[in-house]
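Q: Please design a sequence for this.
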């Protein structure tokens, strides 16, 4: 038994030393692996933070772009509405302009006709004024003749009455 005791103790010692070497080896292996995983984790965490920060910036830029797009669409619809209103107003102005041009053309032709008629009336007026002046001078001439004839009648009547005659025109 002593041999067995000595072999068992030696075997147990070898087993304990082998276990300790294995345990130490596994501990060192796990420590190295854990350290590598920890370093890789820290690297990945740093990268993740960078990516998260970049993603936040991209999200902010995307939100700004979306806001600009929304504002541009709103502005575009407002401008489209204003363009339509101005286009309608321009069309109405063109119609009014055409109508006014037609009215101006009609008015000009009426004015031309009125000017021709005025010139005709002026000619007629000048002719009437000449006729009136002629008639006035003729009337004046006839009045002076009538005055001269009345004087002659008065003189004749005076001579007739002085000669003893009478006439119904002489009173």
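A: Design:
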């Amino acid at each position: 038994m002593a041999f067995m005791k000595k072999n068992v103790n030696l075997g147990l010692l070898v087993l304990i030393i082998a276990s300790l070497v294995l345990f130490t080896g596994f501990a060192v292996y796990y420590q190295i692996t854990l350290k590598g995983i920890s370093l890789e984790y820290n690297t990945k965490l740093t990268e993740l933070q960078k990516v998260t920060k970049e993603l936040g910036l991209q999200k902010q830029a995307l939100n700004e772009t979306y806001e600009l797009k929304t504002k541009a669409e709103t502005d575009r619809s407002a401008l489209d509405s204003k363009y339509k209103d101005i286009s309608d107003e321009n069309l109405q102005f063109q119609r009014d302009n055409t109508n006014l041009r037609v009215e101006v053309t009609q008015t000009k032709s009426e004015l031309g006709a009125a000017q021709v008629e005025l010139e005709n009336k002026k000619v007629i007026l000048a002719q009437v004024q000449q006729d009136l002046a002629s008639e006035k001078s003729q009337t004046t001439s006839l009045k002076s003749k009538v005055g001269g004839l009345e004087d002659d009648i008065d003189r004749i009547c005076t001579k007739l009455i002085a000669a003893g005659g009478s006439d119904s025109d002489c009173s």
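Q: Thanks. Anything notable?
A: The chain is about 95% helix and 0% strand. Residues 17-123 form one domain.
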